[in-house]
């Protein structure tokens, strides 16, 4: 990625930030965020580990170990993006999720992928339940160690992914100017019944 691309990426990522003295009281920070030690070398993470842009993948810093986990991601700027789960063995230089055996993702081209295979294509032909992924969308992800499910603006998709084994983390892939924010608490849409935000392993004891 060129220096100009990095500058544009940072400019877009930081847009809306104002540095002044009128800073409101901020509640205790969630220790779970995107992990700068597990991201592609052309990826930029800002906003306290909540925003990703550039080109490549970024993983969360905590695995989904509890029985029912949920998180959200907001597409702040369009481009090519994928949202889902991955193990730390995934290739972080990939710009699309589901392109290796270690990742499972809903992609911006309406396809859920794993291991370079198209598992499902979101049906945009049914006008009664038409879903067109676009800038501003809120993608929800739930995982109960049996099924991985996706939600678009609070609507559950009719597709689920199973046979996910091993330790997995939230995963976001970006390219072509996409900017995505991960939301790990204070969700925009209520999680499905029984699902909760991702918790650190020690807090489950």
TrEMBL record:
Domain B30.2/SPRY, residue spans: 1-192
Entry-linked Gene3D superfamilies: 2.60.120.920
A Pfam family matched in the record: SPRY
Name of the molecule in the record: SPRY domain-containing protein 7
Database matches in InterPro entries: B30.2/SPRY, B30.2/SPRY_sf, ConA-like_dom_sf, SPRY_dom, SPRYD7
Listed PANTHER family: C13ORF1 PROTEIN-RELATED, SPRY DOMAIN-CONTAINING PROTEIN 7
Record SUPFAM superfamilies: Concanavalin A-like lectins/glucanases
PROSITE patterns given in the database record: B302_SPRY
Phylogenetic placement of the source organism: Eukaryota, Metazoa, Ecdysozoa, Arthropoda, Hexapoda
Natural source organism: Cryptolaemus montrouzieri
